[in-house]
Each structure stands twice: as structure tokens, then as C-alpha cells.
Specification:
375 residues; mainly alpha; cell membrane; Major facilitator superfamily (MFS) profile domain-containing protein; Sugar_transporter_CS; transport
């Protein structure tokens, strides 16, 4: 897992170099396609690696760092994108994965990876490095060994495993979280912030509006990281879905009033406020938590395939939603498009309430037992 993350970081460096040196649209597209591949690989491998190295009490907080750093990256792109051209922005963007690769190359493989290979001594060294020399690692190491041995006794073909009700339940949960994360319309808000504010007739310069939205993302994701292991995953997901439903509904009403020629100049501030609340609540729940849970809910037998397929589904939906948002809003109107997002967020809230388990403070082994017993 550590090697896959390193490879994705190295690939990202080369991709940005391709974009920086691009002298044709084709070269630029190839670079962007490859950055998408490496980014997708990281978003699959990262949560699994974090789940395998983290202590139970802080696993949620560590898992949320992916979303926190993603929002920081988005904010920086908003800030630099307002003041510099595309080539300089690409150079700045290319420096970050270079720093990451230089630093992460010194990280150890996860102890679970070594135990799967039968290398107990390397697993012990890895866990000692992660926990510190003064920490008694033997109980935790033995717990991982017992869990893997139990899984190995029940090892069957992937085709048989996939028919297990527990595995099917985890797949439904994982895929469902990814589906509702993207069908909430978040990437429409992020990628089309400028055009949304322009269509809303906001008096605030659109570049500065996007910077405000980006800052809200960082604040919310950071707050989520502080409270996710205290409040729990389910409550944050529910709050996130409900508030996203309300704010997209409000945006729909605003654009409906604009479309029927009602004077909305007195509430020109409403789109910015609604989008800020939307962004805050997304990054409190449906932003970081689905990625965190990818490393928690899948059994070791299917974790690699299940997490990667869930990540693939996520990025396919990113493409579909962002690619066809313009066509959809032209066909049915911007107001109806946001109402559609509101309905999907509401369905997402029911999905979480009915199917998603609480994983706060539980070991990976305990989560698997709960999924089995909860059938």
C-alpha cells in the first residue's frame, strides 16, 4: 500500500510536468488524464493505509486529513488562480506532489501488510516506528495476527466471498456513500462557483467569492477532523445530507425567482451564504467520512477490489455530474437542477439512517463482526 501511494505521487509529478510543458491541447489532455489516474489511485490507497496504521480512537480524525488537505489544495488553486496564469498555477501544483513524494518515501509499510506476507518481525518494526519505542505494541500486533489468522481459515474464492451477505452489505454501504457524495452536486458547486455567482448576479467579484467558498471548505473539513471521533460518523453524515438538501433547495428557489423575473437584488447575498453553508456541511460529513469508511467497512478478503471499485465509481460520477451539469441546467433550468440535487441529498439522508453503521472507536475486526451480526 505504501508503495502504491509512492507510485501515485511520482506519477503525479510527471503528469504536472507534462501539463507545464504542454504545447498542444492533446498534450494537456493527456497530462490531465494521467493526473486523474494518479489522484484516483491515491484516494483508494490512502484511506486503506491510514485505516491500517491508525489507532482506533483517532482513525476517523486521521482519515479526515485527506479531505482537509484536499480542501486546502482547492483553496490554494482558487487563490493562485485568481492572480496568476495557467502555466504558473501548474508549476505551483507540480511542486506539491514532489514534496509529498520526497517526504512519504520514508514512511513504513503498514504492519497488516507485513503480517499478510508472514513477516512478523517487519510488522513489529513498522508498528514500533508508528507507535513509538515506549509503546507496548505486542497486544495490538497479536490482535492483528489473530484477525488475519481467522480470516485465512475462512479463505475462499473471491466469487464465493462476494456472495456473502456481510460483504454485500459493506459494498452497498461503500458504493452508496460514494454515489450520494457525488450526486449531492458538490463538484458542480466547486467547479462552477464562478458561473453560479455570475448567474446569480452577485455584487461580490466572482474570484473573491470562490476564495471565500474555498476557505469555508478548509474550516469545515478541519472541524470535522476534530469531532468525527467524538460525535460519530452517522450523525455527521445525517447532518451533512440534511443541510445540503436545504441549501440546494434554497438555491433552487433563488434561481426560480430570477427566472420568472422577480427582483432578487435585495437578497443577492443569498447564493453566497447558501453555498458557504452547503460547503461547510459537505466537508463536515459527506466529504471526508465516505473516504474514511472505505478503509473501515470492507473485509480484508475484498478490501483491495472493493475500495478501488468504489473509488472508480466515485470518479466516474465526478465526470458525469460535472460534464453534464451545463446540459442539464440548460434543459430543465438551474432552479430545477438544484432541486434535483436537494432530492438526492434527502434520499442520501434516508440511506445513512437505514443502512450505515456507526464505526466510531471500533476496531476493524469489531466492525466486521457487527456487519455480520447485523444481518
Amino acid at each position: 500500500m505504501d508503495q502504491l501511494i509512492n507510485c501515485s505521487g511520482l506519477c503525479n509529478n510527471m503528469c504536472w510536468l507534462l501539463i507545464i510543458l504542454a504545447n498542444s491541447v492533446t498534450m494537456f489532455y493527456i497530462g490531465r488524464f494521467m493526473t486523474g489516474l494518479s489522484g484516483g489511485a491515491f484516494f483508494v490507497a490512502g484511506p486503506i493505509y491510514i485505516a491500517e496504521i491508525a489507532e482506533n480512537d483517532i482513525r476517523g480524525a486521521l482519515g479526515s486529513y485527506i479531505q482537509i488537505l484536499t480542501t486546502i489544495g482547492i483553496l490554494l488553486s482558487y487563490v493562485f488562480g485568481t492572480f496568476v496564469n495557467m502555466r504558473i498555477l501548474s508549476i505551483i501544483s507540480g511542486i506539491v506532489p514532489l514534496i509529498f513524494f520526497t517526504v512519504f518515501v520514508f514512511m513504513p509499510e503498514s504492519p497488516i501488510y507485513y503480517l499478510k506476507k508472514g513477516d512478523v518481525e517487519s510488522a513489529r518494526k513498522s508498528l514500533t516506528r508508528l507507535r513509538g519505542a515506549c509503546y507496548n505494541i505486542e497486544n495490538e500486533l497479536q490482535s492483528h495476527k489473530n484477525a488475519l489468522e481467522e480470516n485465512s481459515k475462512n479463505t475462499v474464492s473471491f466469487r464465493t466471498v462476494i456472495k456473502s451477505k456481510a460483504v454485500l452489505k459493506s459494498l452497498v454501504i461503500g458504493y452508496g456513500l460514494m454515489i450520494f457524495q457525488q450526486l449531492s452536486g458538490v463538484n458542480v458547486v466547486i467547479f462552477y462557483t464562478n458561473s453560479i455567482f455570475q448567474q446569480a448576479g452577485s455584487t461580490l467579484e466572482s474570484g473573491y467569492s470562490t476564495i471565500i467558498v474555498g476557505a469555508m471548505q478548509v474550516l469545515a473539513a478541519s472541524t470535522s477532523g476534530l469531532i468525527v471521533d467524538r460525535a460519530g460518523r452517522r450523525i455527521l453524515l445525517l447532518m451533512s445530507a440534511i443541510f445540503m438538501c436545504l441549501t440546494t433547495c434554497i438555491l433552487g428557489v433563488y434561481f426560480y425567482l430570477s427566472r420568472i423575473k422577480v427582483d432578487v437584488s435585495s437578497i443577492g447575498w443569498l447564493p453566497l451564504v447558501a453555498i458557504c453553508i452547503y460547503i461547510i456541511m459537505f466537508n463536515m460529513g459527506f466529504g471526508p467520512i465516505p473516504w474514511t469508511m472505505m478503509g473501515e467497512i470492507f473485509s480484508p478478503e475484498v478490501k483491495g477490489v472493493a475500495a478501488s471499485s468504489a473509488g472508480f465509481l466515485n470518479w466516474v460520477l465526478v465526470f458525469i455530474v460535472t460534464k453534464f451539469f451545463g446540459d442539464l441546467s440548460t434543459a430543465i433550468g438551474l432552479d430545477a437542477t438544484f432541486w434535483l440535487f436537494a432530492v438526492l441529498c434527502l434520499i442520501g439522508a434516508f440511506f445513512v439512517y437505514l443502512l450505515v453503521p456507526e464505526t466510531k472507536g471500533k476496531s476493524l475486526e469489531a466492525i466486521q463482526r457487527e456487519l455480520n451480526s447485523g444481518l
